[in-house]
Amino acid sequence: MVVQIDVYRVPLWPGESTTFLLASGEDKPLIRQEPDGSRHVVGVVIRGRELSSGDFIWDDPLANMALSQIAKVRSVVYRGGDAAADEDLMRLDLSRVWFTSCCEGSDLPAGVRYLSLSDRGSVKELERLTELRALEIPPKHDLSLLACLPRLEHLSVEGTWQREEIDCRPVGKLAQLRALGLTHLTVSRPPRLEKLARLQRLDVHGSRFPELPGLQGLKELETLELSGASLGNLPACRLPALRRALLVCAEINKDQIREFARANPQCRLVESWKEPLMDAVADADRVVVLAGCQWGPGPPELNRGPTGMVFNGNQTLLDTRDRRVIRELLDLLEIDPERSGSACMCQGQPTLVFSRGGVWLADVRIAHDRGLKWYEGPWYGDAILTLQAQDKLVGWQKRHGVADALAAWRNELLRFNRINETWNKYEGVWNSRFINQAFPKTADELLRIVRERCTEPDKLAEMAFQLLGCDSDSWSQYVLLDRRLEDLLQTIPSQAIAKYFSRISQYDRPEGVARWLFGCGHWRQVAPSVLDGVLEEVARTGLDSSSKENLRITIRSLGEIGTPTARTILLRVLDGRVKAREGDYQGPGCLADGPAPPWARDPDPVCGERALAALMLARLKCAEALPAIRELVREAQGPNAAVLKEALRILHAATSETRPAK
Fold first, then answer.
1. How far apart are CA 175 and CA 570, in angstroms?
2. pLDDT tens digits for 483-500?
3. 454 & 600 share domain
4. What is the separation, in whole angstroms, between the first and last Cα of the chain?
5. Which of 250, 274, 499, 606 could, after both became Cys, cross-link 458 (CB 3.0–4.6 A)?
6. Is 413 a domain residue?
7. Segment 194-228, tens digit of pLDDT
8. In 546-621, which residue ranges form alpha helices assigned H by DSSP?
9. 91-110, pLDDT tens digit by residue?
10. Degrees, nearest 5: CA angle 591-592-597
């Protein structure tokens, strides 16, 4: 069996440990952990790279390894090397190492037996690799060059979801093949199969074939995979050795399938989505639920942030060997075939990793608590659970602590990503101000240097506001320097802040100023004339925020400011000329009696931005808003309707007070 772990293709030989770890850093080596706790490198990357000085060097981990260590290497990703690196490759046990070639003109040893060629790999070198037993190749390469490989037994040509078109006729001449995969392709010219008399496994899942000519000649064929394939003609031929045919979600004439089944009564036809999954994991004695997107029996994915923060991208949420818990999980996985087959763009999380006796069996990802993704399996698309199975899966996760642990992990992930994004924006601000100067290593150092170098108060205010605007998330949450920058701005004279405000143009996006004025409420400390001069640009930034909380705070602040400019902006919001990125959002809990969502922790009702703008204008007694509010209230529902009616009530009461007595 061969598994993919990060960039490595790793053959699993009998008796070898299946516990792997990844070291940190770019092109990190793959490490195997033995049952006694000892560890050794099994996967390395050989590549060239350019230093900051302009010099070019070769990274060759094999050069620093003893012969006893090199003998344990099982996977090499080769991105080019010098003569010394090529000599180191000769020290490997080539009969047990899988190579991945990612460069043109690579000079791999002639004794290589297992090889994956990337799109950038060179197919010309195959003429020398006459010992090849297994080859994985993308569809861009000319398959006629494979005729020079007399010992090739396993061939896989895998396309993408685009199903690239390819001429597969040269494959019909590879009489020594035992396993053939032509997957996710459009094969207008299929190979003649009758010469592949030794073929035991044929996999064409996800591909389009007009026919499989010569299929009746495969007398040793044991497994036929047609899941997700589109096949114009399936002949009703007798295949005496055939034991299993997978037809999940296959586009094949039903009558042809029935005739094929009659011709091969000894073969088990698998058409249900669940059956192949149960075949793979029915004997599992361990299930590990991982928070992230796991590929195969891989190691923990440790992500390191710029401030020394470490985040486990594959945190273990549940690790159980309880047979009852595992059986309960497998029994509830009922799939709706009518709704299955399409696929969403997410990778799915959490991941269910099944194993038996320490040997990895399969990993299946849960997508949105409604579907399953099995990338290494025969499914073409997502398997959608029945509505009852969806409820049971949610309940299973809650009972065994998966749901709470996953929610906590996702919150940590959001914060980790927010810190990374903010820090990267800090660097962008730094580079625009201090050109060709090294970026500080820590937040403390960054703030200290900014204080030292920005000697003029208005320049210090500009830098502080720019850094404060780097955190584009909710204003009520703080990361890195947010609080300290707010404190710093409090010490800068108001004249200097006003001077910086005067330089803000209609083309700027003053996120930091919007946070400081609206999120912190410091608009009260700014002179009305100064505030009015910058209000258009700052309000536009707040109203365009992706955060519902920031949008709400901006509208409420404009209502409290109440100047003619603020009223004009609110009228534009009311008319729908200024909207949040998600439109007039009410939130999923607005119609329930539960607590307000976290983006609405204030005394005002939970409602959309137009209704909230109407309420602010009503409190300002802005009669100009009456026609728009009357128009909106006709079609409004739920909280929006209630808020708009309250706005009308306030305005009607205000106009009756100002109406002269008869």
1. 76
2. 899 889 888 898 988 888
3. yes
4. 95
5. 499
6. no
7. 999 999 999 998 899 999 999 999 999 999 999 88
8. 548-561, 564-574, 609-619
9. 888 899 999 887 665 678 88
10. 90
